[in-house]
Amino acid sequence: MGRLPPPRAFHRRPCLPAHPGVTVATVLPLIERAISVGDVRRLGRAAHALLVKTALTHHTLLSNRLVELYATLPSPAASRAAFEDLPHRNAHSYNNLLAALSRGTATLPDALHLLDAMPASSRNAVSYNTVISALARHGREGEALRVDRCLGSEVAFDRFAVVSAASACAGIGAVRPLQQLHGAVVVSGVEVTVIMANAMVDAYSKTGRMEEARMLFNQMGIRDTVSWTSMIAGYCRAKRLDEAVQVFGMMPEQDTIAWTALISGHEQNGEEDAALELFEQMLAEGMAPTPFALVSSLGACAKLGLVTRGKEVHGFVLRHCIGSDPFNIFIHNALIDMYSKCGDMATVTAVFERMPERDFISWNSMVTGFSHNGQGKQSLAVFKRMLEAQVQPTYVTFLAVLTACSHAGLVSDGRRILESMQHHGVEPRAEHYASIIDALGRNRQLEEASEFIKGLSSRVGPGTTGSWGALLGACRVHGNIEIAEKVAESLFQLEPGNSGRYVMLSNIYAAAGQWDDARRVRALMKGKGLRKDQACSWIEVRSAKHMFVADDTSHCEAKKIYEMLDKLFDHMHIVVDPIEDQLALC
Question: Is the pTM of this model over 0.85?
Fold first, then answer.
């Protein structure tokens, strides 16, 4: 912002309007109505014109309201012009312009300059609160806290300053400034309102200080929904789900927001079964789930692979029209993700095509879904549509489409897309190169893949472990022991604790009939204290997931399951795999 002109001298003389019938009482309601309805273009201009015609622009109250009116516009230019025409500026005048300048990221420096330039007599708590909240809102929490320190030294802080400063502390995880703020509030003797206490409880929980949050929560004489939900969400973030459930049970009245926080917390902490159980309880209580509760339940279905349960949630959404306006893009994206992870790409396509609007997450989910389900050409087709729709691809998009190229054997397309990444402002990462290595390996270009990896070390460093791993997998598929030994040696140095690399090399030797080498690798693995991760499989029956490992007897129906297996074995011809038979002796 340019240099502000000095305030003009104010002479206390009556301003006689050109139209005696037009007074302050006549014009003020017109400006107030323009502000309340946001009609700057018609009512606002009419009020401004009337002020000019009647020489009432010299009236401080009316001119301040005019600055406030123009502050509602997206651009602060008109508000700034009205401010500079003021014959006399008071604290209200400066604060109105501060509010206008604080709305946009580009004009925040102007707001800070104005705060420094305004007379000390006009700088009050409102001035500081306006700038602090704007900085925190625009992700500049560190600067917000620096301004907050100036507030305490110049003017007494109020509840708005405490809320803004606490939000800033939460945004950057600043524990010490938060504790100092809390201490200053206690020492000052300021009455701690529910809003202030909620802001500090929320900030403590977001910075991981649940003991302080609980202490402050227990001291609150009055608690509202925000108080309870902040504690529930805080315990969930800290992975203390039992305590979150305990606080939820203590609530006088459990509302949809609290239910949503508890369901989301369980889903995000890997407790998908519990999240779905809570969702069912919520419905049984007659609660209408929020869109976020539905997104969490769909996320749980996706992680568990429960497509039938996911369809039930989808049907619930359709029957109750939840999230319409326009049918909530978050729910759409969650449906795409759920159906993709369950392998139902036909339904994914139907959901995607019916979306009234799409964001980059929608497109990424489509590209990734087709890629992970082995439909490489369809993934490339969606990627092409994404570019035609002028949606900016992210590194996730490129990873998905490169994986699709690898699985579909489209090596040349993969190379072309990798080379185009920087054109779209995305720097290739180790995982993108690993996808190209995988594509070359699948195409039997093992030597070329090996040379490609060697050229990567200067660019991605240790990140080449993924590329070496992809090449080792290709060596197993094509039975190339010579390259496999070199690749495995590199991997043993990069990932000495990864048992999967030893198992794969052992299997490569076994497949080639080199049993002594296979046993040697298994012995080396055993000597390092490494064990193969236990594999498992699962099946969905009546919307419930049942998981099994080899020789599992833990299932409640294990006896019946094995009886049925015995019956099936009677009708099957058992074929012994010679490789597995030999490895059993290792």
Answer: no
